[in-house]
């Protein structure tokens, strides 16, 4: 549990949250919210934390972390109002979980031998303890506790990592890459009929595209790449370059839509060259 000084730090935020939800004097918007309604805000705040870190904007990071912490406090207030749990319960649960899953740090016989632990061995112990906890909860599948609301790429990676732990995985990169090519071929096989019979083939293309994206996520995992982060970086790179194309088009005096694709491609190549210098 946190010490008194830390408890005093969080107390004002808990009090603010309680006042915002006060039935008589609270904020009308905050009073209308429930667990489900604030989930989108929680996800947005988590992404803003990630964005601040990726942009190395550490001046903004405390603000973004505060916004995310407020989401946690909001859920705790809702839980308290409904007699289910409060902030102290949440802190106690995470403290217990962390100490339970780090026996090499918090175990009864902690010695200098702990220095021999590696990140890999510690991760293995963590996974074994989590598996034991799943069995105690009587989960029927390894995949039962992977949240459905995760971004699809993140969830794909979690699924793939989970099944890999029980040996359901290719041991090398070759078959993973071959699977990507196989899925591309299957997408194209369905796509050739898409224009003629869209009602029949659009669902098939959707299905095959899903398989392709899942295979690409698996390839990223085998290469040690977070596909969600990679795609965010690709989005940012494209956005930056396209803005450069827009600037060049504006400087030409010709409206963007009046350029040919070849001309826009030339602008794109020019922007890429400038960025590499």
UniProtKB/TrEMBL annotation:
It comes from the Bacteria. Its EC number is 3.6.1.9. It is an enzyme of class 3 (hydrolase). CDD domains: NTP-PPase_MazG_Cterm (cd11529), NTP-PPase_MazG_Nterm (cd11528). GO terms for molecular function: nucleoside triphosphate diphosphatase activity. This is Nucleoside triphosphate pyrophosphohydrolase. Pfam families: MazG. Residues 33-106, 178-243 form the NTP pyrophosphohydrolase MazG-like domain. It comes from Shewanella intestini. Keywords: Hydrolase.
